[in-house]
Write a sequence for this structure.
């Protein structure tokens, strides 16, 4: 396949789950957001709202959510209090999506040597999400509830722009729906209004090149399998 710098940036993006402590300046984050905001959106509605968490605001949110994540494990009835604000995943999983999801989970846990029975390790690995995988910058993305499903399409383009622009500057990311169930804690913490809905979170920073977890590469279905050519 012939490649150019745009392809290179896209193809080098992977979800990174271990970051170094190397800081990212506010200026760089602002630049990434400006580039991302060139994403197209239906009638130029630009539905994205962004909260950038660094320093104490990032650590305090992580502490709050980790505490609730632990408490929910002790008392699963608490989970009912923490619901996602929109269905990111289907209510009922079917093939081939459930198979891909399982494969994804087991490749990650397999790589880390976490077996099905290692519930403590699994919980701890999952909880790494709520520390933004130690990335110095955490982002929360919200949009107005009044907006339609199409705005989520627009939002996806904004998020991808952001992640690809990050690659262009040697930075890495992990988009995170893991936060979505904890909107009740996150929204007041970041100062979002009740009109807003949490779309997802994201970790941003420099990849820890020595971390085993970052060696994960995910497969893709070949073009012929998801494309119908109509002549
Ligand atoms: C919107 C969105 C939310 C995601 N949420 C999480 C998450 O909470 N935690 C996580 O470790 N990975 C998360 N991922 C990463 C996916 O698992 C990953 O994109 C997928 O396995 C493909 O791997 P790649 O990103 O390395 O190409 C998310 C991805 C997207 C697009």
């Amino acid at each position: 396949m012939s490649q150019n710098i745009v392809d290179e940036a896209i193809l080098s993006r992977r979800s990174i789950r271990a970051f170094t402590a190397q800081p990212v300046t506010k200026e760089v984050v602002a630049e990434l957001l400006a580039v991302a905001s060139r994403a197209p959106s239906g009638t130029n509605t630009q539905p994205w709202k962004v909260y950038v968490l660094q320093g104490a605001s990032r650590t305090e949110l992580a502490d709050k959510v980790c505490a609730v994540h632990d408490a929910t494990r002790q008392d699963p009835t608490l989970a009912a209090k923490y619901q996602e604000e929109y269905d990111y995943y289907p209510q009922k999983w079917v093939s081939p999506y459930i198979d891909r999801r399982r494969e994804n989970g087991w490749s990650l846990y397999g790589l880390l040597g976490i077996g099905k029975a290692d519930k403590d390790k699994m919980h701890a690995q999952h909880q790494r999400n709520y520390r933004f995988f130690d990335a110095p910058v955490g982002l929360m993305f919200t949009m107005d509830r009044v907006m339609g499903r199409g705005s989520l399409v627009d939002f996806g383009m904004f998020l991808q722009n952001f992640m690809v622009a990050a690659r262009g500057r040697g930075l890495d990311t992990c988009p995170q729906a893991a936060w979505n169930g904890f909107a009740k804690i996150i929204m007041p913490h970041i100062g979002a209004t009740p009109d807003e809905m949490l779309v997802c979170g994201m970790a941003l920073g420099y990849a820890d090149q020595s971390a085993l977890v970052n060696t994960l590469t995910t497969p893709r279905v070949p073009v012929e399998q998801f494309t119908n050519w109509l002549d």
